[in-house]
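To whoever is on call:

I kicked off a structure prediction for a single chain this morning and the downstream step that reads the tokens threw a length-mismatch warning. I double-checked the sequence; it's 435 residues and nothing unusual in it as far as I can see. Pasting both halves so you can look.
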Amino acid sequence: MLLFTLSILVLAALLFGLAPLRIALSAGPALALKTSAATSNSDVGKSRTGKIIVVMQMTLCVVLLVGAGLLIRSLRNLENTPLGMRVEGLVVFGVNPNVKSLTQGREFYVELLNKMRMLPGVDSVSLMSERIGAGWSNNSDMMVDGRMPEVANGGSRTVRSNVVGPGFFTTLGVPVLEGRDFTDSDTAATPYAGIVNEEFARRFLPNRNPLGHTFGPDNGIATINIVGVVKNHKYRSIDEAPIPMAWYEYAQIPVIGRMDVEMRVHGDPLAILPAARKALQQLDPNLPLIRPMTQRAQYNLTISSQILFARLAGFFGLLAVVLVATGLYGTLAYRVNMRTAEIGVRMAMGARRGQVVWMILRDSLLLTAAGVVLGVPFAMLVGHALTASLYGVTAMDGVSYLGAAVGVAVVALVSSVVPAGRAASVEPLRALRME
């Protein structure tokens, strides 16, 4: 990649460096000797190459700025999407104990929860078989009240499920709308307890109180009593749509091996990790904390591609702005230098400085208008191509297009200030002597 980039740079330098040389050599010495500032100005005025290049740069800038605006606004929408929980203050890590039986597994996690709850600064602790925000889920059809439920409009019976520990929703900060959260009293010796979300109740138990109803896998191996209903919240990723969900208590469902620990703490969530690691090593010195991170960081991993695209688009948009600024400044500065005699004559004939400044700015604004007019259709095509990557914003988002047009106009005006000021400061007598 580095070799390819350097090759392109060298090739571009040669091509654009030799182009002026070819023009100079083709003119011949006789024409150069008899060329005055006035005739040079006439020739330059007829040449549209510089203007075309600047307009192309502005067109590209508009396209890149619109694309960057759409992706950045999508990223902001994703970052501000309500997760349905109080994610601040949450830290999560995995544990994979060396246990040989279900009894050993239950005993290990009971002792682990007790140790974590005793750590200073810890509000609550819970467990989960599948880490939320990790992009994974356990999906299966569910029976409700002993039979397969009827779903309106050909809807799906698929339910996303997870095995969790006591106080799971209290730890996450997910509101319990009806019933209760899991508690330490939910054990292997008590009736199976389950909790569902709003979408589950709406789809499978419409217009009924879900508490007291039962559900279970479609193979009929277990019947779970609904003891609570919680608010819909994000599970696999930030941008997912609501789906029926059900949760079981880990002490009642056969679970052995790796689980994730969710902790709500005061202050910086990551600051609790050394103490948590020490507490875990009291149970087994060889156990590490698996992928410790804040819960916010875990959810942000689900939009990593959107973050990458938005950053790249913003970078290339900024690069385009720099190219437009330098290109426009160079073109206007060159034209002002070649029109020194003309400007001197205009000022000697009574032209005011404001008129001279407007003459230069007018060229800049005309080039800007041409670039925007040409860039908008191409930006629309790019916007439609990015539709799959957008969230909460359409490909025809007016704010992004207006922002790109205003941005290009501001850059053009700023780039024109120095050449316009230089033109307005031309002394008529000195400019005429140059001829």
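Update from on-call: the warning came from a stale cache, not from the record. Cleared it. Sanity check on the structure: The longest helix spans residues 304-338.
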